[in-house]
Amino acid sequence: MIEIIKTDVSMPPYPERRYQKWMRREKWIVVDTIDGSVRYRGTYEGVVLACHNLNKAHYLQIAEDLEKEKKEAVLTHIKNRK
Q1: CA separation for the pair 78, 61 (Å, rounded)
Q2: What are the pLDDT digits (tens) for 48-61?
Q3: Residue 50, Cβ neighbours under 10 Å: how many?
Q4: Percent of the chain beyond pLDDT 70?
Q5: Whose CB among 30, 36, 69, 71 lies 3.0–4.6 Å from 40's, allowing a Cys bridge?
Q6: Are 52 and 60 a contacting pair, CB within 8 Å?
Q7: Which stretch of DSSP H or E encloses residue 72?
Q8: Could you tell me the pTM of the whole model?
């Protein structure tokens, strides 16, 4: 069973998200729009959850990286002022 990631994160509108759910040859898949690879295959419900979790994890990682860069920039600025 797939568990839903419930952490709030800002994501772009669905058509612009990295992972998309598609139906190919009457089967549901999750596709990575950057490299075109299939990340998950399964039932519609499973694909919806997998797509949701992959997008959440991807955009959470981006948000964490940006936050880390901001903190490092502030620390560097403080060090340079002394």
Answers
A1: 26
A2: 999 999 999 999 99
A3: 20
A4: 96
A5: 30
A6: no
A7: helix 44-81
A8: 0.75
